[in-house]
Amino acid sequence: MSKVQVIHTAEALHQFRQKLNENSQSLGFVPTMGALHNGHISLIKKSAEENDYTLISIFVNPKQFNNSEDLKQYPRTLEADLMLLEGLQHCVVFAPTEAELYPKNDGFVPMELGSIGRVLEGAFRPGHFEGVVHVVHNLFRLVDANQAYFGQKDFQQLAIIRLLTRYYGFKTRIIACPTIREASGLAMSSRNMRLNEKELQDALIIIETLRYVEAAKNQRSIEETIMAARTLFSTSDLALEYLAIVDPETLCELSEWQEKQICCIAAHCGSVRLIDNLLF
Ligand code: PAF
After folding, report:
1. Which of 40, 128, 134, 137 is catalytic?
2. Domains and CATH numbers, the chain
3. Which of 114, 130, 257, 277 is deepest in the core (most CB within 10 A)?
């Protein structure tokens, strides 16, 4: 049994937050869906460096899954997650039930996401970002953190979280953290747990293709680069969902290279959907 403090209710979280306020202690927040890996740990360590306490939420949010099989298969490993956090000082876990996080009449009023919510993940996972906005809104309201930490692997999610923070007037500062990769280059993700040995190898085509695109910058046109990158990707066993080179602010597809762009990929590796990106 882990010794990490786990809060399950909104009321207990409120009391914890109040105590910090009384002692003028700051709170960093790392929202997760559990199945913690070193990517999460890097966010938690950054928060621990910058705040008196860190709260890690663990909640598999049904509202953000547009595919019921994906929700069913999503890893749930609370005991192992708590063991991983063992020994980290001033870290507390918030693991609410659905009823606790989404009480009846929770006062949530959806926001219009605009074009940023309709492209890339928004186009392929209808309702996904609406679900992310709802859960992050409810979490931010309960946690009232000074700073919240998000990984850049979910680049579009990060852009939407910045948007919702402004829209709902949360005072929480959003801190973007770099994608953490395996030595092989595979971006760390809770979904990697579901890949077998062969799929872990196959999945490397994602980072290979992203690096190919980066190297092609200013050598070939964007159109040619995308065509060649798709051809490279098609040599793999993965099924490509999208490969796009977009502006990092608007996420609009580019026809000319700029100083900064981001290449985003989503693909199915067996039954597991993976995303990754490279900003260059
Ligand atoms: O990135 C995630 O793990 C989730 O989308 C988040 C932000 C915890 C909301 O459920």
Report:
1. 40
2. 5-177 (3.40.50.620), 190-275 (3.30.1300.10)
3. 277
What angle do the packed helices 222-234 and 204-216 form, to 10 degrees? Answer: 160
In angstroms, how far is the first alpha carbon of the chain from the final one? 44
Select from 59, 129, 154 the residue to mutate for testing ligand 1; criterion: most ligand atoms less than 8 Å from CB. 154
Q: For residue 187, what pLDDT is reported? A: 98
For ligand 1, the distance from its centroid to the CA atom of residue 112, given in whole angstroms, is: 19
Q: Mean pLDDT, 10 residues at a time, over the chain (280 residues)?
A: 93 98 98 98 98 98 96 96 96 98 95 97 97 98 98 98 98 98 98 97 98 97 98 98 98 98 98 98
Please state, in angstroms and rounded to a whole number, the distance separating the CA atoms of residues 25 and 76.
Answer: 31
Active site residue 40: yes
Q: Scan for tokens 């959907």, then name that residue.
A: 273
For the chain, the residue count is 280
What residues flank ligand 1, with Cβ below 6 Å? 31-33, 61, 64, 132, 135-136, 154, 157
Backbone dihedral region of 195: left (phi > 0), alpha (psi from -120 to 50 degrees) or beta? beta
Q: Is 240 exposed, middle or buried (0-12, 13-18, 19+ CB in 10 A)?
A: middle
